[in-house]
Amino acid sequence: MTRTEEFEELRPLLFSIAYRILGRVTEAEDAVQDTWLRWEMSPTEPASPRAFLSAVVTRISIDVLGSARIQRERYVGPWLPEPLLDDPYENPERSAELADSLSMAALLLLERLSPLERAVFVLREVFAFGFPDIAAAVGRSEAACRQLAVRARRHMDEGRPRFEADRREREELAARFFDAFRAGDVDGLRELLAADVRMAGDSGGKAPLLASQAAGSDNVAQLLAALLPRFRSIGVVLEPHEINGQPGAVLRDRDNKVLSTLTLDIFGGRIQTIRGVLNPDKLQHVGPVADAWAVHRKAFGSEGGAVDSSG
């Protein structure tokens, strides 16, 4: 097998590692490309291409994460990961770990970890790398990596509830939610929302947000019921789609351009959080991006709507 063939075989794994460390599709793709360039220039043949390439993409991602965190400190409004419609890496033996680590909630928890903790957690808990390979990847001793793994696992376990194990039940609840959303059915929406449900929106100041920080089942149900009918009247379509391994949807304008993505956190048979990514910079990999400001003006006219561009 040639180097190119070996790399292409491992590309899905490398992207999945980088995306979980970085939370950005574009940066993960760049990290994978940089990994290929470094391997192409390497004069030696590693004993394990998988271990070697995983170590390289991890180190690159750690370096990128350091500069990305500085940028996020200046970010306008709440920051959410870039939505991922399909994870290219599949492993039936790790399917639960892969799905759980891909959720928006898990990626946001990873943001609380140091870059080293984050890398160690991803390699160990998600992809089941051995500590010798992890130590080589992050440049620390095996003992130090074990301590990092314990610390990271504790922080992650403390911060998140487990999502519904029954995938079918979760999908059915999401389908009912999107039906009620399309119909503007306040009662139907309220029935599916947790009492303390909250909405979170990421526009980066580059798209209108409509009361993005709404909370409570009554407030959220009324807001949602009022929004989509206005958008549907000008041709906006809600397209259910799994996003980051969770029930979600893509909103498109009448020209099939992407307006936003939505993801639903479901726990205890209710929707706990609704997260929307509207920043056009974070949607370009999903498809051609709509002019969200123009769509908003068409939907609301001189009313303006409850716009909060800062989040």
Task: Summarize the topology.
Elements: H1 3-22, H2 25-41, H3 49-73, H4 95-102, H5 104-110, H6 115-126, H7 131-138, H8 142-159, H9 167-183, H10 186-192, E1 193-202, H11 217-232, E2 237-240, E3 248-252, E4 258-267, E5 270-277, H12 292-300
Parallel strand pairs: 1-5
Antiparallel strand pairs: 2-3, 3-4, 4-5
Helix pairs in contact: 1-2, 1-3, 2-3, 3-7, 6-8, 7-8, 9-10, 9-11, 10-11
In short:
This protein is α+β, with helices and mostly antiparallel strands and 311 residues long.
Overview of the structural elements:
About 55% of the residues lie in helices and about 10% in strands. By secondary structure, it is an alpha+beta fold. It has two domains: about 5-160, Butyryl-CoA Dehydrogenase, subunit A, domain 3; about 165-305, Nuclear Transport Factor 2, Chain: A. The chain has a five-stranded mixed beta sheet. The longest helix has 25 residues, at about 50-75. Belongs to the sigma-70 factor family. ECF subfamily. This is Sigma-70 family RNA polymerase sigma factor. Interacts transiently with the RNA polymerase catalytic core formed by RpoA, RpoB, RpoC and RpoZ (2 alpha, 1 beta, 1 beta' and 1 omega subunit) to form the RNA polymerase holoenzyme that can initiate transcription. Keywords: Sigma factor, Transcription, Transcription regulation.
